Amino acid sequence: MNWDWEKLQEKRQRQPGRKPEGGPPPPPGMDNLGDKFKNFKGFPFPVGKIALLAAVVLWIASGIFIVSPDEEGVILRFGKYERTVGPGPHFRLPYPIEEDLKPKVTQVQRIEVGFRSPPTVTAVQSQVRAVPEEASMLTSDENIVTVQFIIQYRINDSRKFLFNLARQHETVKSAGEAAMREAIGKSKIDEALTEGKVKIQTETQKLLQDILNSYDAGISVLTVQMQDVHPPKEVMTAFRDVASAREDKVKATNEADAYRNKVIPEAQGVSAEIVNQAEAYKETVIRKAQGESQRFLAILAEYNKAKDVTKKRMYLETMEEILSSPGLEKIIMPKETGGRTLPLLPLGPATDMTAPQPSARGAK
User: Fold this and answer.
1) Which terminus of the chain has a smaller tally of CB atoms within 10 A, N or C?
2) Nearest 5°: phi and psi at 258?
3) How many CB atoms lie within 10 A of CB 152?
4) How far apart are the first and last CA of the chain?
5) Are 328 and 360 in contact (CB under 8 A)?
């Protein structure tokens, strides 16, 4: 048996594709593996080259990217800024040579300071979480006030925004909190709780924009809006009483202004009426006096022309006026009797001496 086994081993070693070294026999069907591989290399279709070419094409195609209308494309070459492109399809060198960043330059970003809103829009308002360490601030009159506000900003320079700031959102939030603390620190608590809110918001926005400009951040601050401003819970009741008193003061002031606006126009109308009546009376008296004077001058001119005739006419006109008066008691006596009669003044009922009396001219 030993001889047969040695003969078999020598026979197998002499077969093509067999290594001369000793070892265990190859598995069945693997005797001609080397020849089969040589035949595969001579196959007419270059499968390896096609696969390599496809990989290169896909790698080059990975450089195609699309920028949305609300974005800007920032191209980096080996991590360094190269260029900025607008919305639309673009091409860059494939990674790792170039890469693209696409910040949303038209989207308005919102930052909450002093509180956190619920994650969903459908959540109830009571789920708003306060952040006391951000909201507690000190006023100029050394009172503590809780201020919750929001900051809205937009990117105006994507290159500066990406490369001049690290953790942009946190930086804007910290700068906004510092600006609000400075504005509150210059105001009294009454201003922060009532009519001074607009002034504080405007001043905070300006301070925040100045800070970001000093960082060269490429950010435009759109609004700073105070959501809720109130004193600490320990003194809330006292401040509510103060607020009620202010409301009563404003109400009383408004009522007084309304009464003044009602009375003053009425008094001005009455005074204007009196002045107009006085002006009318003045004009009437002046015109009448002027007419009487003109009449007298006209009579005087006629009297100078014919004194006897004018004198007689004036006498007759006066007698006609006296005798035609229905309310005047008249006594007619002859001339001879009248000269010897004592005039008698009748003592009748008291008369109003201020009332105009009819003129009476005695007869000769």
Assistant:
1) N
2) -65, -40
3) 15
4) 203
5) yes
Q: Cis check for the bond before 326: say yes or no (omega within 30 of 0).
A: no
Q: What is the CA radius of gyration of the chain?
A: 58
Q: Rounded to an integer, what is the distance from CA 28 to the centroid of its chain?
A: 89
Torsion of CA 245, 248, 249, 252, to 10 degrees: -160
Q: Which amino acid is at 274?
A: I
How far, in whole angstroms, is CA 113 from its chain's centroid? 20
Structure tokens at 48: 């390896």
Residue-by-residue pLDDT tens, the chain, 364 positions: 444 556 666 666 665 555 555 445 555 555 555 555 555 555 455 677 788 888 888 888 877 878 887 788 888 888 788 888 878 787 888 888 888 888 888 888 999 998 888 876 554 555 788 888 888 898 888 888 889 999 999 998 888 888 888 888 999 999 999 999 999 999 888 888 878 889 999 999 999 999 999 999 889 999 999 988 888 777 778 777 877 887 889 899 999 999 999 999 999 999 999 999 999 999 999 999 999 899 888 888 878 888 888 888 888 888 888 788 787 777 777 777 666 666 666 665 555 555 555 444 444 3
pTM, 2 dp: 0.52
Residue 294 to residue 346: CA distance in whole angstroms: 38
Q: How far is residue 307's CA from residue 242's CA, in Å, rounded to a whole number?
A: 94
Question: Which residues face 99 on adjacent strands?
Answer: 76
